[in-house]
Amino acid sequence: MARQNQARAARRSVAGGPLAACALAGIMFLLAGEATAPAATPATATVDVAGYLAQLRCGDGSLPLLSRCGDARPQRAADRMLWRRADRGNPNPPGYYQVSDSVVADDGKSWITTWSYPPFGQFVAADGDGGEVYVREGNAVRIDRTQDGGRPGMQYFVGTGCGGTGWIAFRDDAPTGRWATLVATLADRPRPDACGHLTRAFTRYRLETVTFPFIVAGRKLSVTLPTIISDHCNAGTLSACNALERSYFARGWGRLYWAAWGPQPARVDLSSRCPPMSFDAPPVAGWHREDCRLTTQIITATGRLSVDRYGWPPRRQ
Fold it and tell me: Is 83 helix (H, G, I), strand (E, B) or coil?
């Protein structure tokens, strides 16, 4: 069930612009040190899962990491963006391949993580643009649908309403110091009402404190965040699977890191794109990271674009 095709931008090279002066003004006092968030929630507590699905913004649209504002709130799809998150590893300007945003939908009923490729404007499927939508059902966060450059059109991860669970990313009982496990039952379909045969997917998740390497204005900054780590395998047991996706959902940021693991080495050198991460050991002995994205490079935006104006997900007919 793994979607190992978000990496198509590895061949891309694009031109970009400088960081805006407003971002630079607030940064110099932070760059020499490490920003630290509160420690991860104790293992016995119920996790506020919504806090791990969207990035925060200040009331004036600026980045809380820089301004230390007192009015930060989850960014909504309608909010005009003054900054965005990019990956890294592109040796050519602007120094990244993919731009991503994690927001809450305007109706508050779902969350959206997008990815876009050059020219980083409104959604164009042919460029590999897309994203994924998360919903909360009971104590579980489920990936409802996704779109990327590896397959035309929307992919719906059906299960609820079909006698299964759908793609469960994690639940609100994520423990610290160990994995919680479950077996999801789902199918990948082009329509949300198409059930068919459901397959089993071994899933595990945990809540840990992770230090992420951010890049802001070309300078490095370490940011320590409570993070839910989620593994999704394409078989009912870990020993039977031959592909696994791993995602890191950081509090106040949404999905910052994604990796596809499997038995084959990556086709490109991933070391500059994804530096080593805590808790990112091979899920199976001898496996390799076949693809990855770490979207912790902060870039400025003009404010003309919001996730709504980006245009993904498209409105259902």
Answer: strand
Average pLDDT for 4-27: 33
- Residue 312 DSSP one-character state: -
The helix/strand/coil state of 141 is: strand
**Residue 87 CB partners (closer than 8 Å, separation 6+):** 96, 97, 98, 100, 273, 293, 294, 295, 297
> Hey, what are 49's tokens?
């899962």
Contact residues for 234 (Cβ-Cβ < 8 A; gap 6+): 1, 2, 199, 201, 241, 242, 243, 244
Residue 1 lies in a domain: no
Residue 119 lies in a domain: yes
Residue 293 lies in a domain: yes
Compute the distance between CA of residue 302 and CA of residue 83 in angstroms, rounded to an integer. 8
pLDDT in the model for residue 27: 36
Q: Is residue 315, in this structure, part of any structural domain at all?
A: no
Instruction: Enumerate the H helices of the chain as residue ranges.
Output: 21-25, 64-67, 307-310
The arithmetic mean of pLDDT across residues 113-121, rounded, is 96
Q: Which pair of tokens denotes residue 170?
A: 């994690």
pLDDT at 184 over 50: yes
Can you give the residue range of the structural domain that contains 230?
6-310
Q: Which of 257, 203, 271 is nearest to 227 (CA)?
A: 257
